[in-house]
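Morning F.,

Quick status update on the modeling queue. The single chain you submitted on Monday has been processed. Sequence for confirmation:
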Amino acid sequence: MSLPIVYHPDYVTPLPEGHRFPMSKFQQLYELLLTDDVVQESQVCQPDRAPSEWIEQVHTPDYVRAYCQGTLDSKAQRRIGLPWSPALVNRTCVAVGGTILTAQLALQHGIACNTAGGTHHAFPSYGSGFCIFNDLAIAARVLQQRGLVQKILIVDLDVHQGDGTAYIFQADPSVFTFSLHCEVNFPSTKQQSDLDVPLPEGMEDEAYLQTLATYLPDVLTQVKPDLVLYDAGVDPHGGDRLGKLALSDTGLFRREMQVLTTCLSQGYPVACVIGGGYADDLKALAYRHSLVHRAAGEVLRLYG
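Structure tokens below.
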């Protein structure tokens, strides 16, 4: 069985020169996956742009309208941290569509991977931390609304707490949020996930993987999800400029194998998004993001 990969050329949107968000990493990741034969072009699926009615299952109509029309006030725009443009609006909606498609493919194949996604700092009425619309939350709601799933587990291993996702589902027993993140990092004000595991600054591979192994199997046993949405942020890497943890490339790959094997071996399908990753060396960053796709291919061969 082949691993489905979701990619769209609009994932890459030009930003002003010198902007610190590494937008070109999405294209570099896609090209690396093809160059290294992690996937073939026949395995690549292009998503459609998510319509407003899907996005408004999570976000307020006023916020969706203001962002899409470019009428957000300057304070709200600064909180997002990305310069508004019609192209970025389109890219944002296409990326949401990508995570929805990834989730649908995961239900069909056992695992599927997006080459974008993980915008977990977006709240219902505002964006934050490079996150405009919360693709994980929207995908969960769309699949539930379609009757494809009932119970969802969100495993968020980005180095930053998934505060927007935690807030959105704080009173919803049908979506369990699990966040393993650096304690002394953005956001300064944390929300309450169903399970938060704050980690000390500087944690390395072995301690991190042991901590993950302590919690993930029990969470799966407790939740018994119809689908796992996995935010595979690579910003826990020691070389990440926004991270504060100290995982290696090997540690990240072991993390991906651990998460995917634990889920697939018990029959739980997993939809993967790439989450955060910030580095000046974009080649190295693209490689880190590719690790979840590499691990997914291996695990699918074992359990697909």
